[in-house]
Fold this protein.
Amino acid sequence: MSAAPPPSGNFAYTTLITRASYLAGVIILASTLRKHGSQYPLIVFYPPSLAAPAVRALQSEAPKLNLILRECELLLPPSNVKTWLIAERFTDTWTKLRVFEAIEYDAICYLDADMAIFNKNMDSIFAHAADLPSDWIAANHACVCNKERDAWAPEEWREENCAYTPLSHPTALTQPTKATPESRPTYHLLNSGMFLYHPSQRLWDDMLHFFNTTPKLATFKFPDQDFLAEFFRNRWRSLGWQYNALKTMRYWHDAMWRDDEVVCLHYIVDKPWAGRVGEDGRAGYRGNDGETHRWWWNAWEEWVEAREKTGEDEVLGLVAKHVAKAKGEEYGEQDPDMLAIGAGVQAFAENKAPDEGTEKKSSGQENEKPANDGQATNEGAQRTGNGLLSKVERGHGPVVHPRGSSMMPP
């Protein structure tokens, strides 16, 4: 029996890129969407601070890969809110919320820039939009197994509390664990790498009001992910794992995982373009991701071959600058942003908030932490002509913040 045709409608995909180190990720995401037959555009949100060569590469690829480029201002919490994130690079991800501004579409599927499409057409995701309430999202659970017992993870992140643990093939594809008001707390956590939504001005306004007023903002370790889980609490529908297949699921949840059922693979933690697969077949920060990283590199080689055939040397050079070189090629100076997404990525996830009310044993003073070590602080901001707060933060260029409890402009 042939598969049902993908749904049609005023649909689109969105993604976000804030740093050139993710350029190859966006290109391969778009390339694999198109390879597997997607008929909908990928709207690429990017801030003015994105390096000009990266923008030029995206502009070159736009007509070939059905991209719509949309410049947007970075979004950060109000100036009086200090947040403590797992890693400094997550500061940029607040801006992911801006994809809800694309209100000209009936339904949108957001995809992280570290994803790629395999095996099947991703457009089938839009079938789930038909009966999705206008103020809900559809997404996948966060995997909370934490089998490597990372120190930053909450104590309750264990296999027995993971929404994927009870699942097995083939029912896991169509009968994911439901998040209900009575579910255990970890079942309410979602992974924000992929989500389906109905954009509207009302929804965007409601999100911004919550963003500007909730006292919980300072507690979110994964900015956009924790925000979405809280804002859409009891208003999100779980989807089959195949639409957001975390690469670690291949060996953490082998009872449900099947290689040929993967639709959208999510390269969490270290990124495949930041390191080549070793001669021994090993890749990834623990050496366990050789197979899935090989899939990405196969897609990369297909894109390179296609551009070489048409003599597009400029775009090849622009993108390849942010891709790990083959064995024997000259590396030159290492890009700090590339190091932050490479095999040593876990070293960049050691940020912890100080315990309030505690004192340093050596000096008797309150526990302090350098502002550039995971703390997102907006001190020293300057007023601009439009009344918004702005300043230049390390490596991000102009940043626009909300005005306390007021609304951010679209």
